[in-house]
Design a protein that fits this description.
0% strand; 7 helices; 155 residues; 63% helix
Length: 155
């Protein structure tokens, strides 16, 4: 998707080789700079028909990085019929659920959300993710095991 987008303040930037920057190129730059709110604003400014699964995946990633886990989960629910059998969808869902389990500061973690996060990370592992994601899933599963230690287990 090339720049500019109607309704969004964009600039056109030429990259090496004279290629025009795409929205995904810009999102990658924002990700690297930790400017996730720009990704949210850009994707949400697009008409619904232009919000591809890939762009919605970037929106989920941005929401997760901004700590807006409930928003991430809403987008994940929208994509569930098409993407639930991908490690990416399962991993991002597990991530959002794990951090949603923290709730407000000082409150105990929510065991039901931790159990759902466990299931999502376990499913991601079964879908053959890249090695670095596999390691992260295993780390999250260990944290969940530790978090649930001493709680009434529902796993």
């Amino acid at each position: 998707i090339p720049f500019p987008f109607p309704g969004v303040l964009w600039y056109t930037e030429k990259k090496k080789g004279g290629r025009q920057m795409t929205l995904l190129d810009q999102i990658h730059q924002w990700y690297q700079a930790g400017e996730h709110e720009h990704t949210v604003n850009a994707v949400l400014s697009l008409p619904g028909r232009d919000r591809t699964d890939r762009l919605l995946g970037e929106l989920i990633l941005a929401y997760n990085n901004l700590g807006q886990y409930s928003h991430a989960l809403l987008v994940l629910d929208e994509l569930k019929p098409r993407l639930r059998y991908t490690w990416t969808w399962q991993y991002r869902r597990g991530y959002a659920l794990y951090y949603s389990a923290y709730g407000a500061s000082g409150l105990p973690k929510v065991p039901d959300l931790l159990a759902e996060a466990w299931e999502a990370f376990d499913n991601a592992l079964k879908l053959d993710p890249p090695e670095h994601i596999r390691k992260e899933c295993l780390e999250f599963l260990e944290w969940i095991r530790e978090d649930l230690h001493g709680m009434p287990a529902s796993l």
